[in-house]
């Protein structure tokens, strides 16, 4: 087939240049590159973050795509290690979303990388987080962490400080004035101890999160509680793979913790090791 015209920006604010790229299907056959973000996928508003892309073959150039934007978002050249960096000096709501990268080598182009979800926090007011029956739990017991919001409609997200565990997410399926979701934890072992925070995000902008809730410190007591051991039964999963849809539990103005039945258990464990490419 005949070539088509592809507009490629040198950077998000730079001038556009045109490059002719062949539209043949067999041109997009190179292995997809790896993509990751440093220091992480969840970034506070105003803080820097860099998206990295690396090919298994020597690349001539790398291109960053943002979901729902047909043209490449950014173009750059590889460094001496055959990696490309796309630095964001100050994370903003505009930068949040899902990204992919591609590269070209000689006359061929790669397949697109996996999606990289980049989240900005601090966009909206903070939800609240509490523990039921309380933040001190006996080894082998259970506890529910309750995240509630009166301002944002969409999803609630629970994170454990340190980033070792994959976030758990709940997508709410109806729209009360005030809602909350329960994140069941247990049977508890020493690896569950630590500091938790929850966030809220609107339905229309799932990668724009609120400020964090106040920290909740979960303490595990009982025999063996002073000898932490890693969990042995958590499955591997990818970020956002363990989203569950629930109907929110309405709260009365005077009661921030519902006594109703908790939502159904997620199909995956609330915390699991992050599977990397």
From TrEMBL:
Gene Ontology molecular function: inhibitory MHC class I receptor activity
Residue spans of biased composition, Polar residues class: 253-262
Protein's GO biological process: cytokine-mediated signaling pathway; immune response-regulating signaling pathway
InterPro entries on file: Ig-like_dom_sf, Ig-like_fold, Ig-like_Receptors_ImmuneReg, Ig_sub, Immunoglobulin_dom
Keyword terms, alphabetized: Disulfide bond, Immunoglobulin domain, Signal
Transmembrane segments: none
Residues covered by region (Disordered): 248-277
GO CC term (a single one): plasma membrane
Cited Pfam families: ig, Ig_2
Name of the featured protein: Immunoglobulin domain-containing protein
